[in-house]
């Protein structure tokens, strides 16, 4: 099954000022055709480097897409470099010059002499019209070690590239490609570290090269991507079934999403299903938990609000936590976390409440080690509970993980609560 490589040309793409977004669009389009992108590369405006990159790409991929470097200036080297890599000459095309001349006339602009550079094409290339700009694209078919290859030269501006690819390249690729599809499974996991997760599931996925398993880790959140390629949807789904059920069994309720939904979105749907409401009480996270919950459109269906009680006085005066409890146990304790959740629920009338208190650093004000975070949960007719975590990272890392752990504890509690 054909693979693809994408080469983005432009020295500006090697700076912090310009980001290559074309490759994201192209990858999405190719995946929809069942084509995997095996490598993406950004190369500056250097003819020898671009030629080398194209030569290497042709050695491993049946489809090579090169974006940018088709303009009229001296640093637009893509045409020359591709000709070098293929061992072909550049041809001056009178029809392209005529098209360029007519285009400039239409815009009532004089055509500079260097625009004639855009009338050159690689020997044997099929010119691709560009009604949105002045850089014609090129479609080149070649043979490498008896295997057919396709090389596409596309303009760099996204508007021009997308139009040309959709109108000119997709139909050609569709006719050329064999039947193939890519099917995916997308799990999101909370409550365990990346190394522990991989140790658990690697014996399942390691023997397989199709499906391909990718593990992406963030603070308190891990994504598992399974991608299978087959001639039909049924074949690709069958390949996924070789490993997906066992991965699901091993991870159990640590999997909180099977469609890529965020933890806060999953919780929102669960609260809607229960016809329940939620409030929060936060100390060390300073509102991060509430921000995540309210990032979901329509959260007003279930989220009533929250309390930001950063010091002991606010916990007592605003929330109603007993001052004696704070004095005996300190703010970073399970007793206070439970009280915060209970008080928040009592004041708002919410079905459920979640609280966070802890030491995010860089110094401790209660004597608890930096990274100590306590999460409390309260619910109508349920006994309040709290759990203490030792989280790692800098201040922002601790706060991020605290919000994630609080959401995951809430998710598990909602799943186990009988209302």
How would you characterize this protein structure?
The structure is a single chain. The chain is α/β, with parallel strands linked by helices. It folds into three domains: 3-176, MoaB/Mog-like domain (Molybdenum Cofactor Biosythetic Enzyme, Chain A); 181-257, Alpha-Beta Plaits; 263-416, CinA-like (Maf protein, Alpha-Beta Complex). Helix content is 39%, strand content 25%. The strands form four sheets. The protein has a six-stranded mixed beta sheet, with helices on both faces. The chain has a five-stranded mixed beta sheet with strand order 14-13-15-16-17, with helices on both faces. Helix 1 links the parallel strand 1 (3-9) and strand 2 (36-43). The longest helix has 22 residues, at 395-416.
Quaternary structure classification: single chain
Task: Give the CATH H-level superfamily of the largest domain.
Answer: MoaB/Mog-like domain
Distance between the termini: 52 Å
Query: In which range does the helix fraction lie?
Result: 25-40%
């Amino acid at each position: 099954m054909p693979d693809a490589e994408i080469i983005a040309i432009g020295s500006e793409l090697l700076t912090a000022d310009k980001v290559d977004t074309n490759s994201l669009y192209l990858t999405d389009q190719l995946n929809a055709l069942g084509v995997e992108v095996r490598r993406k590369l950004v190369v500056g405006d250097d003819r020898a480097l671009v030629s080398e990159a194209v030569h290497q790409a042709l050695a491993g991929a049946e489809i090579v897409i090169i974006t940018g470097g088709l303009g009229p200036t001296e640093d637009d080297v893509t045409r020359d470099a591709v000709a070098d890599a293929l061992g072909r000459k550049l041809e001056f095309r009178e029809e392209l010059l005529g098209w360029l001349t007519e285009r400039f006339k239409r815009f009532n602009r004089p055509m500079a002499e260097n625009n004639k550079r855009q009338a050159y094409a690689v020997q044997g290339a099929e010119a691709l019209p560009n009604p949105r700009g002045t850089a014609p694209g090129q479609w080149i078919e070649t043979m490498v070690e008896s295997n057919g290859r396709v090389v596409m030269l596309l303009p760099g501006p996204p508007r021009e590239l997308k139009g040309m690819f959709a109108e000119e390249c997709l139909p050609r690729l569709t006719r050329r490609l064999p039947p193939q599809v890519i099917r995916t499974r997308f799990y999101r996991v909370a409550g365990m570290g990346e190394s522990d997760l991989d140790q658990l599931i690697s014996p399942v996925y390691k023997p397989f090269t199709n499906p391909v398993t990718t593990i992406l880790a963030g603070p308190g959140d891990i994504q598992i991507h399974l991608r299978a390629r087959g001639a039909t949807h049924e074949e690709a789904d069958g390949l996924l079934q070789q490993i997906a059920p066992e991965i699901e069994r091993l991870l159990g309720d640590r999997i909180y999403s099977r469609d890529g939904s965020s933890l806060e979105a999953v919780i929102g749907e669960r609260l809607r299903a229960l016809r329940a409401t939620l409030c929060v009480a936060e100390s060390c996270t300073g509102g991060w938990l509430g921000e995540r919950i309210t990032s979901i459109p329509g959260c007003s269906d279930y989220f009533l609000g929250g309390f930001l009680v950063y010091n002991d006085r606010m916990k007592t005066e605003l929330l109603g936590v007993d001052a004696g409890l704070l004095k005996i146990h300190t703010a970073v304790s399970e007793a206070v976390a439970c009280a915060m959740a209970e008080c928040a629920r009592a004041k708002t009338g919410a079905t459920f409440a979640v609280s966070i208190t802890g030491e995010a650093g860089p110094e401790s004000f209660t004597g608890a080690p930096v990274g100590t975070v306590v999460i409390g949960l309260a619910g109508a007719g349920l006994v309040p509970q709290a759990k203490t975590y030792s989280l790692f990272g800098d201040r922002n890392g601790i706060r991020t993980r605290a919000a994630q752990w609080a959401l995951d504890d809430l998710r598990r509690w909602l799943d186990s609560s009988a209302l």
